[in-house]
Design goal:
Two copies of one chain form a homodimer. Chain A has an eight-stranded mixed sheet with strand order 7-6-5-8-3-2-9-10. The longest helix of chain A has 53 residues. The first copy, chain A, has 14 helices and 18 strands. In chain A, a hairpin with a 2-residue loop joins strand 14 and strand 15. The first copy, chain A, is of the alpha+beta class. Chain A has four domains: 212 residues, Histidine kinase-like ATPase, C-terminal domain (Heat Shock Protein 90); 64 residues, Helicase, Ruva Protein, domain 3 (Orthogonal Bundle), CATH 1.10.8.50; 141 residues, Ribosomal Protein S5, domain 2 (2-Layer Sandwich), CATH 3.30.230.10; 53 residues, no CATH class. The first copy, chain A, is 37% helix and 20% strand. At the A-B interface, helix 1, strand 1, helix 2, helix 3 and strand 3 of A face helix 1, strand 1, helix 2, helix 3 and strand 3 of B.
Chain lengths: 530, 530
Amino acid sequence: MVDTMGVEEQEGEDHREISVAEFFEKNKHLLGFENPQKSIITVVKEAVDNSLDACEQDDIIPEVQVLIDEVGDQKCRVELRDNAIGMDAETVPKVFGKLLYGSKFHKLQQSRGQQGIGISASAMYAQLTTGEPVTVYSKEEGKPCNRFVVRMDTEANEPEIIEQEEIDPEGDQFPGDRDYYFDHGTSIEMTVEAKYTRGHHSVKNYLKHTAIMNPYARIVLREPDGNKIEYPRVANELPEKPREIKPHLHGVELGVVMRMIENSDARTVSSFLQQEFTRVGRKSAVNICEEAEIDDGRRPNTLEKDEVENLLNAADRTNLQNPPTDCLSPAGEDLLLKGLEKELNPEFTTAVTRKPAVYGGNPFQVEVGLAWGGDIADEGSFEELRYANKVPLLYKKSSCVTTKAIESVDWSRYNISQSGSRPQGPLYISIHIASVWVPFTSEGKEAVANYDDIRKEMKLALQEGGRKLGRYIKRQERMEIQEEKKRKLTSYATEMGDAIAELAGSGNPGEYESEIKRMVQKDYDPEGLK
Amino acid sequence: MVDTMGVEEQEGEDHREISVAEFFEKNKHLLGFENPQKSIITVVKEAVDNSLDACEQDDIIPEVQVLIDEVGDQKCRVELRDNAIGMDAETVPKVFGKLLYGSKFHKLQQSRGQQGIGISASAMYAQLTTGEPVTVYSKEEGKPCNRFVVRMDTEANEPEIIEQEEIDPEGDQFPGDRDYYFDHGTSIEMTVEAKYTRGHHSVKNYLKHTAIMNPYARIVLREPDGNKIEYPRVANELPEKPREIKPHLHGVELGVVMRMIENSDARTVSSFLQQEFTRVGRKSAVNICEEAEIDDGRRPNTLEKDEVENLLNAADRTNLQNPPTDCLSPAGEDLLLKGLEKELNPEFTTAVTRKPAVYGGNPFQVEVGLAWGGDIADEGSFEELRYANKVPLLYKKSSCVTTKAIESVDWSRYNISQSGSRPQGPLYISIHIASVWVPFTSEGKEAVANYDDIRKEMKLALQEGGRKLGRYIKRQERMEIQEEKKRKLTSYATEMGDAIAELAGSGNPGEYESEIKRMVQKDYDPEGLK
């Protein structure tokens, strides 16, 4: 029933192990390396995500530089610098020379990266397309700067160190401008097959969207033509740092629990439940065991599979508090508004941060911002800004839960016209999902899967924002109608003054005119509508 | 710039390797295990794909049994049997207990599976959701039958053999009905979280679509309620078996060539090029070396990176024959028509098999079948049957290149009405891409990436089929108009006969009537239109 066993028989051994690096090298489009235009965005994205994560983790206000040079036909040299805490000499090679290596995968805590694939995949892509290894400078505070040249042995998925040396931060070899020097941080240099373009799908737009959602970071981009763009810092405090949590019993898989039992050093079922899961206290643990008819003092590793299953079913029937939500770090309504106003200069903005919710045991939180009018042109359709854990999503819009949520809202109820199911007008909609585990539709982390619980939260947030915007639009429309009436009545005032004077057979037409204008002004004062 | 180095510093070691099984366990939605309804289709699909591949590889006319029982709330026991050649005792555990293991990944040859993930991922999903290991019976011809119970050590991505024994094919332990016995084959049994449903997204529909494209296979499905459905064999010969080819110099990546050089035992650059690539003869090899200004007698491993790059650039400027296409095994127009007619009973069918083409160095071939009218109801929109290497694709239609291709055709030119860009009417469109490497948009192999070269070929095939269908529809419409006129004129014949008789002042009205009917019949004979 399996893989060409015939060939194996007839032509000798053929089955073999496939390294995860070989797998993703051949499937590089799954990681966002579909074409040269997209690939350079992916390279920048993975590095910037890591920089922001690392800075926030250590309470450092982020400084990020992205320097891009064209060095040939469809070939760019990319340099990425940050002021994060830096890495020690043991860590560097594996982080850049091995796929599926990292610190975030096993943690339940909101972060931009989550898979341990991003930056090593960029290094692999560089090596694949230009044959060049990646160069990394990393410096920890008060320590020497390590310079590494690393390549990946793709067939083994292991790093190979080509050069390694300590360099003097005061010396010529040290990268970076002197006016942009930190005594801790990391610089990466790689040469990749790439095409630097402008427009929606561009490094510039990616960084702009990043700046909107992370206004406490200062980001500098130097484009291949030498043009420097700075996204300045507009907030000086980092958001509250998310905390790591343990899994919740509601939503955890049987196979995972069986593995946790194997790895746990808890001596009783009761302490196992309390130690390994969030929101399980002594009382809940005893209740669950009773409900499952299992002695709570038994050693966990004596439990049979069916007993573990009973335990999980019992937990499902037991009321447990929702997981704690300090593992999440939403942007918050203030920052959402600040970001939109700074970059778009709209006439009206509103933002909604929903309370945390849970899908499949994972806490998540949805935020929505709406911006209307002002400098936003009415291009027929609205514009969408999509974010997951503060990272902009530029691709795969049509398969993203954000789009499904927007299309599920009846926008006409909010005085916004629709084309099909999509709202129209001078409108930007930004949607953010923050979660300890965002269910992306691919390793490239380009779109979020259409899960019911997530779409529902997004719809509620959009409706709440929509109502506020709708009220504003209605008021505006009424004001415009009033203004129009006022304008017309005022323009008739002279004639009417004459007519009234004539009808009255006396009086000064000019006075009637002024009186009418005053009446119009008073009756139709738009302030009265507010 | 990387993964939370802060934590590592402050809280000790935190970076670690992530096994590929852990990765996909947490990302199981990428493999098609998104929900219980879809998961059972994925389990059946991976097993059936493997069975058909294995049978064809050994010239065995496939017999496949799919037996499904509900064994609890959202839990199914699935048994999958085939008559392929079977596996030896060394191979079984790894095939079911290790992700990224197989024989197809490193080969350039059309096959249903290509990643070495499918069936082991099903076993992993079973273990994760129900805690149960997979049981496998495999028997090679003339050898004893091996029975294995295997689980996966997810943290190591390695198999663990729980039970292993030789069993007597005549004994009670041997699985399968006595009336359905083969002396070679494999049976798999697993219990998974699953929901057996009917409708478009169902095991039944998946097998029906499989039967349409693989009419030489006999497939039996036993549904949980005991209902047996047989998809009979309607063709008795296997299609031509695809051959393995070597990569083509046009489209191969620099990094891949550098690795090939490392692994090659060729003594000169010239022989390296001839041995490792398709369509490179002595003359082309010498030409390429000359163009790159490299001595063709040099040892390949003395080449610098820049020299390899020059070699590839020189190859790009050199005219090389397209890759051979016997690595492909399209269904062919006959089988396409047979499949559509058998399952849909339409009024009109047409099929187009395009010549092979190449994208990014990979040969591929597109086929299209159109079925119209008859038993096909006009539901407003057309129905789509999507296939990649003869495997039905049921999900992610909107992001699939097939849909983009269909929407790029101007169907109104073929007398088919459109709603937006989609054709309407009693229409089925089947599209098949056969390739040595299908660029799926995810590991779950649910949709094909929207590559220009592929979409173009599909569009051309659709247009060719569309023209034929359009001519048929036009003829039908004209026939209908004629028939309508004839019917009307005939129904007036009596009155006209009377009128003519009256005008003529003589004659038999009945004769005029018959004469008119004859005239109508003759003038509007629809056969004359053909």
